[in-house]
Amino acid sequence: MASLPPVGSRVSIRYRLPAGTAHALTDVIGELQAVEPVIVLRTKSNGMVEVAPADVVAVRELSIVPVRASEIRALEHAAALAWPGTEQHWQDGWLLRAGGGYTSRANSAVPLDFSATVEALPPIIDWYRQRGLPPWLALPERLLPIRADGTKHTRVMVTNLTDAELDPAVMLSTTPDAAWLTGYQRDVPAEVLTAVIDGEVVFASLADTAVGRGAVTTAPDGTRWLGISAVHVGAGQRRQGHARRLCRTLLGWGTQQGATRAYVQVLSENSGAILLYHSLGFRLHHHHRYVDAVSLIA
Predict the structure, then answer these.
(1) In 3D, which of 292, 22, 29 has the Cα closest to residue 150?
(2) Count of helices and strands (H, E) across the chain
């Protein structure tokens, strides 16, 4: 059986029908209510559909509510401002970001304007080559008709913000100190971590157990978004609620900065992080991936 997302997700399931029926397969879309001993979905009409796990042929997770391409573009714009690298350049509707090669987000081009097309790839490739960097494209789904599978498939999950209390044990700072950088355990320069365009950034730490980053930026449609990133918990401290406490404080901080919605970008195979954010109220908004621009014109 194909793997299932957490209970509460909206999914499309294709499954086998009993022998002798008019069609061998059928599809159902609904909110996942249970996964064992049988799969239970609540459909739009509030009807319940049960599916035996052995009959499932394919599963596709859907955004919790229908999402327009314009909403994907607006959120991706806010996210790009929140992790822009140390150098930026607009090229025919694409925002090109460079940060010395540290992190994919800070070193990729994302199509943020309606005018962005694949015709801009040659100058994009040249811009990155001048900086000694591979020309990675950050491609949100549905914004461009590019079929390349790419790499680092990512789920963008969102939630609405409400008032939240800040945990007094979680320390907040506008810059990452030595202890935060040690806890992050990734070799990323402070100038890349602190970079943000027209927004605010904060670095959260919980004793010697967990660290994380929050950034609030504004999308073109006026929505103030909090982006949570760089969350890391020490290997010996996991599954003890530290990441949850830290993220709740970042959500509270974001509310204080005027954010009304929050997002996270999680690698699709990072099941632990997906479950954590799902339990905090985050649901799938859209997917994106990274594609080498050279592969599209070779």
Answers:
(1) 292
(2) 7, 16
Give the model confidence (pLDDT) of 87-117 as tens digits. 999 999 999 999 999 999 999 999 999 999 9
Domains of the chain: 10-62 (2.30.30), 69-153+289-297 (no CATH), 157-287 (3.40.630.30)
Residue-wise pLDDT tens digits, 25-36 = 999 999 999 999
Has residue 298 got a pLDDT over 70? no
Q: Are 225 and 196 in contact (CB under 8 A)?
A: no
φ, ψ (nearest 5 deg) of residue 227:
-110, 125
Residues in CB range of 246: below 8 A, 6 or more apart: 167, 170, 204, 205, 206, 210, 211, 212, 231
**Quick one: DSSP state of residue 178?**
H
CB atoms within 10 A of CB 160: 8
- Per-residue buried b or exposed e for 74-96, using 16+ beta carbons within 10 Å of the residue's own CB: bbbbbbbbbbbbbebeeeeebbb
Instruction: Identify the CA nearest to 263 among candidates 155, 102, 184, 167.
Output: 155
Q: What angle do CA 273, 149, 101 make, to 5 degrees?
A: 65
Distance CA 186, CA 101 (A): 13
Q: Helix or strand or coil: residue 95?
A: strand
Beta bridge partners of 160: 261
Nearest residue to 57 (alpha-carbon basis) of 10, 5, 14: 14
CA–CA separation, 209 and 20 (whole Å): 58
